[in-house]
Design a protein that fits this description.
The chain has 19 helices and no strands. The protein is mostly helical.
Length: 428
Amino acid sequence: MSTGSEAPAHGSGGHQPPAHGATAHVLPARRPRDPRLDFFRGAGMFIILIAHVPWNGWAQWIPARFGFSDATEIFVFCSGMASAIAFGGAFDRAGWFVGAARVLYRVWQIYWAHLCLTLLLITVLVVVDARTGDDAYLTALNLQRFFDDPKTALVGLFTLTYVPNYFDILPMYLGILALLPAMMIAERAGPLWPIALSVAIWLVAWLRLADLPADPWTDRTWYFNPFAWQLVFFLGFGFQRGWLPVPAFDRRLLMLALAVVVITVPFAWHRLHFYVPELKTANEALFLLLDKTHVGVLRVVHFVALAYLAMLAAGEGGRRLAALGRLSTISQLVGRQALPVFMTGIILAQLLGVFLDIAGRDLLTYAIANLAGFAVLIATAAIAEWFKNPPWARRAPAPSRMAAPASAGHPAPTASAAPAVPATPARG
């Protein structure tokens, strides 16, 4: 998915050399933000919340129940596209070392976000378990180890060798980002070299040669292997960066994508397996090609087909998304603030599960829990966006100057005498 052409330069006369003695500060052109990127990433955030609420009835109707790929592919692919915008420009403008430093700074931020999120949710569940009188909620997420062997758990938590259940995505994401500087070196040899490197790394991971330990007490490994999932990330990065051509509308591609999506439904829809056991047997036989931890190739094929259909449905530049009105606006808002929304959703999903345990699970309580969760995610996105451009950080408009009346021998100043002030680009 392309984000469109470069923004035109201000004015129509092209770049003008600065006047003698003047200092020019040339700001790089910025690409307009593609609404499709934010829309689908926002939709992925809502789906991830539904999937994470324990025993959520609405989870029976998310896309993952009808296909081989799920919202994780949406999140990782869109994150790759967003990273091409956020980090690719840093490499282009400032060189490899500054670009790599920019990436490593983001890795550092994600690392601490993961630690704070884990410790905060542990605290929340300790309070919940204290009220219920057992350790059911801590045990469900494999967090009881934190109290059974705290010394080992703390070391493992900070070294990412203890990644409890449910806390896999952010470690995966920082692991993928850490590969980005190497990909930018490969790009120097040509646009297909980073894609070839990505495929080679994925193959090593798919062969179970790059598993990472998930806890010090067992042989459990990371549920999301970053060396495998980087393939989906760099597909998104590559389309945005121009390593891969964005496929145009083609009736044959359309029919092929539709066939892939439709054919996978009976193999993925577990409810149908109760009536046709042979489908369940076939699904189990395809495990290596559907493995989520190591990104089985059929997951990638299914997601690429879905992504192509979604791109066509949204229209060029996302023009058809406007027909959704407020739904599109809200989803884009959530997509722009994916990290704070995701972190909020991780904790919120567990609290909504507690609510359902207390209130019971029926159509009404499912609706209350999920719709309330959506409202909290939207509020989180709105607050995060407000803090990224708060009133105290906005520039006050320059006061208008009234021209002094001309007098003999003192002509009034003209507009061209004032130095030009470079425009500040809008926040992305």
